[in-house]
Predict the structure.
Amino acid sequence: MTASFPLFAEVPLAARDPILGLNEAYQADANPKKVNLSIGVYYDAAGKIPVLSCVQKAMNALAGQTAPRTYQPMEGPAVYTQAVQKLLLGADHPAIRDGRVATAQTIAGTGALKTGFDLLFSIIPKATAWVSNPTWDNHRAILGGAGFPVETYAYYDATTGGFDLAGMLRDLERAKAGDLVLLHACCHNPTGVDPTADEWGRIIDTIEQRKLVPFIDIAYQGFGDGLQEDGEVIRRFAERNLPVFIANSFSKTFSLYGERVGALTVLTANADEAQRVLSQIKRVVRASYSTPPIFGASLVSTVLNQPDLRVLWEEELATMRNRIREMRQMLRERLSAQVPGRNYDYITQQRGMFSYSGLSAAQAQKLREDYAIYIVESGRICVAGLNTSNIDYVAEAVAAVQKG
Ligand code: LMR
């Protein structure tokens, strides 16, 4: 049929999303041996996406409540935003006491990034955004959508499988004052490579000296070394009294992917600034989705604010973190046995859900087509998708494609 007004005649088919597109292909794959190591989702030892007990208990408690489902404030409820601030900065942080922190509930981490970038673009429209090479594929898309030109700073060193501090500092010297620098607080996506505490010190010094605007993405707090440890860089930035943007997500750490729970937090110089910044965040939210949804955030704030549930959550988070570590260990051992002489130490040195395997796009494709093992074409493997039932199969397949 020909349309009377051919509006869509020239609309091209968009490229498949490098992560969500693979997840769709995995769902459609009929191979019983299929393994999903593509999307950043934590599976438990039985290969299931867990419903955390703390979340189940919060759900049970909320089920008995019959509060009206009215509109929430544009920035979300204070019980939630205050709990987020305490989680990120520590309960009695002076920045919270001084009222210089602005926080709004967002549609998960992606929504926090989008809201923060849109706000920043209205403040620094001439800025360039600097992202690590590589970074989460969607960072570039969201930054571009907000209007920023995007450049990369060196990050991953393919020769060592580690962090390239000198390269990063060299590239940040090229940034101009007021440019935005996107940082991953912990469990870098996609590489799993994080700077050490000393290296962070050098990065923070450079950002301060060059008057760059740090934007911290923290989607895996507690998956690396622990809740405190993984949030340390935020407190170190806060000490310098710099303007800092923070996008956090509870998708992974609460296993609440579909609820889309996150927040945008901005550290400002004083309470007056914080109030003005929050008013601007509300303006962006209103023009985007108006007000945030209730359910997921009420689960998270119930868990964070109720001491027994909070303890339970931290235990469950530790279980997830330790299982991922165990899988890293097992994968390293199995691959080392399969391919003697090859160094797989990077697998246990990297942190969080992801391991950058060094596998090429062609090898990733071979894994998918010949073994129904789905990894991202950049070579990123989601270690949290491994378990004792699939790890031998995966290690044998990876070794086979690496041997060619
Ligand atoms: C990932 O990197 O796989 C996750 O953050 C999920 C996503 O939205 O891409």
